[in-house]
Each structure stands twice: as structure tokens, then as C-alpha cells.
Amino acid sequence: MSVKIEDVMIKDVLTIEVHDNVLNATKKMNERGVGCIIAVDEGKPVGILTERDILRRIVVEKREPEKTKVKEVMSTPLITGKPEMMVEDAVKIIILNRIKKLPILSEEKLVGIITLFDIVRLSPVTANVLRETYKTQEVPPQIEKYIIRLKDKRYDLEKLIKGKKIPID
After folding, report:
1. Domain assignment present for 44
2. pTM above the 0.85 mark?
3. Helices 124-136 and 141-152: crossing angle, nearest 10°?
4. What angle do CA 116, 40, 86 make, to 5 degrees?
């Protein structure tokens, strides 16, 4: 692949203070249509709250989300990557740690996030499927940003497949 994380990461990362409650975190996640939120303590990323955390630690345990603090149910320690690392290295971290979301830090500051879905969409096969599917169908709002990003990153996709061109338009 030979693509740096900083070239493909999502830079607008959703965060919430660790002392806020899970209900507020869930509302923020739903508003943005994302599956996780990074928990921060005085601006420093310290954990991640995912849909799975909410299901396992709130729903199954019948806890009250408005009374449960994010810090009580978030996943820690926070496993992270760096913007200058290659996508292949991020894939190794994701696989070895059995995670789906990898926050990206630079000098201990949150600068982005890359998800398993982001990595899959980099695949030339996925690019072709997305292109063909959304030629004839309306693009769902939650996927539209990825289709646009694919069009903007055409040169990266061409490098990924070593000279084989994938027409994205």
C-alpha cells in the first residue's frame, strides 16, 4: 500500500470529557453517525467509547446511561498510532490488538482516527465496488464523505495498485 496514515485519516475526531455521561456521548455519536468517541481528560486522550462498549457495559448490565460516566465504561488503555506511520503498520496494530478504531496522536495530541472501514475502502477492489454501486444508486449520507474522499484521492489509489488505473468518476 505505502500510504501514510496522515493522508487517509479522519481529522475531525469526536471527543468527550471522561466526566461526562454515556447518554451525552451516545447522542454525540448518533448526531455524527459514528461508532466511537474519544474520551479526553483535560484535553488529553485517555480512552475510547465504542458502540460495543455501550452494548456490553450499559445495555447488558442495565446501567443508566445518564448516570454512568464515560470513564466508567470506556476502553483503556488507548491504543494509538502516529500520522507518519504507513497504513500497513496501522493494520498490524489493529489486527494484533483486535480493535477496529485507531486514534492517531502527534506529540500526545489527538490529530485523527483511522478505522477498519477506512482501511478497507483503500482497497482497489472496494474502490471498484463503491464506484459501480453508486453509479446507479443514491449515495447514503453516512457513506457520501468516503465516496468524495475516494474521488479526491485518485492518485493515491493508483499508487496502491501499482499503475493499474481505477476510474473513479
Report:
1. yes
2. no
3. 120
4. 35
